Sequence to fold (330 residues):
Amino acid sequence: MLVNMNDVLYPAKRNHYGVGLFNAVNLELARGIISAAEATRSPVIMGTAEVLFPYGPLEEVSYYLIPMAKKANVPVVVHLDHGLKKETCLKALELGFTSIMYDCSTDSYEDNVRKVREMADIAHSYGATIEGELGHVGDNEGSAEGSDQMADPSKFYTDPKMAKDFVDKTGVDALAIAVGTAHGAYKLPPKLDFERIRAIADTVSVPLVLHGGSGLTDQDFRRAIAEGISKVNIFTDINIAAVEAEFKRFTNMNKGIIDLIPAAVEAVKQETEKKMRLFSSDGKAERSYAPREHILSAGLTGKSVASMNRAELEKLVEIVALQVRKELGT
Ligand SMILES: [Zn+2]
Fold:
């Protein structure tokens, strides 16, 4: 079922597990990710990023991501990762993405607030969620996400008080923070500032996002989630898993790409499942709530409360009550 980020991240934040964002620039990646989510009964966030458009244009990717999310028997968020231009975010929302990230983290603080505030209103009018970034997560050499290597990344770490101000002023649903990770594959082991994660989690009310997660140790992930991370972005690990599997499968006897596709899908599935278990999102599909799904199946979409008859109002109350009970765990 297609849901937005709040549907999967608030239960994660309350119950101290993480939900992965896995970017899916082609069908093999998308199939591997969805099969892993269904096999582990895990909620999942699937998407693409603006820098990945050369490998899979946004519109084309949307043709399979959104129907696959709807068809899945677990909650799936279709998310635009690192939207850099306003037009890109608007296009994603128009295409039916249920979540976007508008990354203005290299702008001045004032511009970041102003631009993200404006986009948050637009995203919310679509029933979609929005992630912002404060501080700046840089890139390892050769990263697919970019080439912004920083001499001293700690200068760009997120400040907890500023984070609260940013969330209050912009209305973002989730916040990406800079605490020592970088995009792409690491040359030297990263050092995470766990105290800072805790301090930000204690100060802001929205779920926190860790970018540049591929290559961290299992221990790092567990601790980052324990200290307050609710969403972890993964791309490099599944990207590499797919190509390693194809490489191993390749022989001169191959008939062609059709011999390699199943190997790539299976490798992405295995790697994604591993991450889902590590983040403890496995078995949590039923915990995520999707009021929109119920409202949709009850035929109540697009109706204002004032225009509903008694039976429709009762149905709506029932849906809301169900979600509240789920949230309270009763
Ligand atoms: Zn990122």
Remarks:
- Residues 257-278 form the longest helix (22 residues).
- The pocket of zinc ion is lined by residues 82, 137, 145, 183, 211, 233 (CB under 6 Å).
- The beta strands are 2-3, 19-23, 44-49, 76-83, 99-102, 129-134, 174-177, 208-210, 229-234.
- The radius of gyration is 20 Å.
